[in-house]
Amino acid sequence: MKISTNFVPAWMTWTRPLIAALWGLVLLCAAVVAWLLHDAAGLRAELPRLDKRLAGVEAAAQAASLRPGAMPSAQELSETRRRVTAVNAVTRTRGMTTLALLAGLERKLPAQAWLVSLHHRAMEGEVMLVVAASSATPLSEFLLQLERDPEFSQALLLRETQGNGSDVQYEIRLKVRT
Amino acid sequence: MLPLLINQLAPASPLQAGIAVGRRQLCAVTIESKGSGWSVRNIHRQDLAVPLFSGAPTTAALGALDAALQAISRELDAQFALIHVALPDSVIRSSVFELDELPKAAAQRTDLMRWRFAQSWQRPEESLECRGQDLGNADGKRLLLAQAGDRAWSDCVKQALERAGQMPASMNAALAYRYNRFQHQFAPAAGAMLSLDPDGWTLAYWDEVRRLRHITTRLRAGDSSDELGGLADDVVRNVQSGAIGKAERLYLSGDSQEMLDLSARLEGKLGIPVTRLHAVDDVAGNTAWAREGMAPLALAAAMSS
């Protein structure tokens, strides 16, 4: 048993741990400084190579530099930009082209069915088509494929009619996914 | 792991100083670590022109304490030693309370100690500064080592130390330093230690597990022709009283010559072995002055940590 009472603040109880912590901090800082010095030495070693590369790039830029007179004037650039914008506005369409649509339908259409009519409104992204077959089975199969096609957000059977003879016709409306 | 790391990064101070503040004398001993032991570096003794610890602190007493501390501080300042300050056992009184239950909160424990010491001394509670240490259970009771210092005088010493530029690591009663210094020499049995100081004596009794159980402190009657004889009789009465219990050995600590004189008297009267403990044992260096007056106490304080 040791008598551990004390009539003055026991600063010794925390002083030594504090000193040890400060030493730890100093060692940590020393390690960081050593690492930074090592990193700086690495960068310094790389400096001549980077200088050389920079000189090469500057030389290449000098060689390839454009003369001021070869550049189009600001007015010409502005006119060109305006014309490009106008052409883009004229030719802009949304969704797939009719050619791509027909190619897709050809792949999906069963052998026993055929396309009677196609109305493609590209701006609205809407396709109206009439397909015919000798029975309803291939047409239902075709409609099912259209419904599953991720390119279309909607495949809706508008009307089923009896065509010439025993032919069956499906009038279908498709919405192209934007 | 953590203590080992702390020891590596912040090793304990190789220099320790003990300052024993007596009523009429102040003694400072500095020791330095030499390998696995200690060596006395220097000893300073300063007689006080005005006695301390009598009544309330006076300006004259403060001046005398300041002068003595300033005188020893010049050398302490240059040494960066860890300082331990020992006050007389009559200024910081120690007692062992046997309680049914130990108050859980430290503040409650302090209040209890303050109240009991105030009752015992008939002093206002606010004039006492108390410290306690739980000693564990014994005979169905909870033991509390309680200490109470005279706040006016302990503040006075602290302020004087501060004015002298000293920041002590510890301040305690002489008994605490002596007990810590010598405890490894105590036999594993019930025993008692008589501490002799120029101003007073203290008898501390411990049980078979070397746990303090009873402490008696008396001022010395220095004007008696056979003062040591009277002291020996007083000690014998205390040791043989039922309150103390049965000590199998009595240890003496203090001034070498007084211990020599008393050991023969006490051994004959008590019928138990009496062992003299010297703070300078196992200490190298110039220990000639470390055996008398307040020096043994100052040395014990320096070596107690």
Structural descriptors:
heterodimer, A: 178 residues, alpha+beta, 4-stranded antiparallel sheet, 4 helices, B: 305 residues, alpha/beta, 6-stranded mixed sheet, 5-stranded mixed sheet
Report on the structure:
The complex is a heterodimer of chains A (178) and B (305). Chain A is an alpha+beta fold. Chain A has four helices and four strands. The model of chain A has no long low-confidence stretch (mean pLDDT 87). Chain B contains eight helices and 14 strands. Chain B has a six-stranded mixed sheet. In chain B, strands 11-10-9-12-13 form a five-stranded mixed sheet, with helices on both faces. In chain B, helix 6 (227-240) crosses helix 7 (256-270). In chain B, 44% of the residues are buried. The mean pLDDT of chain B is 89.
Structural category of chain B: alpha/beta
Low-confidence stretches of chain A: none
Succession of helices and strands of chain B: HEEEHEEHEEHEHEEEHEHEEH
Number of beta strands of chain B? 14
- What overall form of chain B do the CA principal axes indicate? globular
Query: Which strand order spans the largest sheet of chain A, edge to edge or round the barrel?
Result: 1-2-4-3
Q: By helix and strand content of chain A, what is the structural category?
A: alpha+beta
The oligomerization state is: heterodimer
Question: Stretches of chain B where pLDDT falls below 50 for ≥5 residues?
Answer: none
- The order of strands across the largest sheet of chain B is 8-4-1-2-3-14
Q: What is the helical fraction of chain B, as a range of percent?
A: 25-40%
What is the overall number of helices of chain B?
8
Termini distance of chain A?
Answer: 86 Å
